[in-house]
Amino acid sequence: MAMMIREDFREILRLVRPGARVLDVGCGEGALLELLTREKAVDGRGLEISAHGVAACMARGLSVVQGDADQDLDHFPDKTFDYAVLSQTLQATRNPRHVLDELLRIADRAIVSFPNFGHWRVRWSLISRGRMPETKALPMPWWSTPNIHLCTLADFMALTDDLGVRVDASAAFAGNGPARAIDPTKALENWRSETCLFLLSRGTPAERVEPSAVSGDLLIP
Predict the structure, then answer these.
(1) What's the CA gap between 175 and 90, in Å, rounded?
(2) How far apart (Å, rounded) are the C-alpha atoms in residues 169 and 161?
(3) Positive or negative CA dihedral for 80, 86, 87, 92?
(4) Which InterPro entries match (predicted)?
């Protein structure tokens, strides 16, 4: 039976160059890192806060250390990696601005995904029920969620502007559907996008990663 791959993992797999040096921050039990190693032959490393996650990664044969993104990214030298990946973890950090800044110090590019608190289901839940929403992207009740800094797509774009970060590619997910390339500056996307994923960088302007006219996939410059 073919292994099911999360749609956001598929998109990250498309964006990462073969053989690249990759740091997966908040790598959990190593599913994404293992996928990148197998499919793209990356030189992969992981940083995971939980001892259980580190043990699971080591059982997969992955190179992972236990550490906290809020503190331990500071110890990596500049430009150690080609990509730093932060998948569904930014909202669980204590200082998201610092973490994002550090990702683009230690890597040429950062791939960041997060649940969009501006999605219409979230807004409707707040309006109709007056309670913190529980959706596919935000499945846990407020009292047990690790998410402490939820943000909207518009909030994230404001943060990239504040940091002087360039958006090289952006995609959105809703339900179980595949990635959809978006223009994150459009107000409508703040309503439509349940989960957002960005390829970010700094430095001189580069060719933007655009959707393929044939398949809709994101192309790697």
Answers:
(1) 20
(2) 15
(3) positive
(4) Methionine_synth_MetW (IPR010743), SAM-dependent_MTases_sf (IPR029063)
Is-contact 105 203, C-beta < 8 A? no
Q: What is the mean pLDDT of each run of 10 residues along the chain (221 residues)?
A: 75 96 96 96 96 96 95 95 95 94 97 94 89 77 79 96 96 87 95 95 59 38 39
In 185-211, which positions are buried (b, 16+ CB within 10 angstroms) versus exposed (e)? Answer: eeeebbbbbbbbbbbbbeeeeeeebeb
| Rounded to 5°, angle at Cα 37 from 35 and 40 | 90
pTM, entire model = 0.86
pLDDT of residue 204: 56
Q: CB 148: neighbour CB atoms within 10 A?
A: 10
Alpha carbon distance 81, 74 (integer Å): 14
Structural domains in the chain, CATH included, are 7-114+150-171+197-202 (3.40.50.150)
Q: Which two tokens stand for residue 190?
A: 């703040």
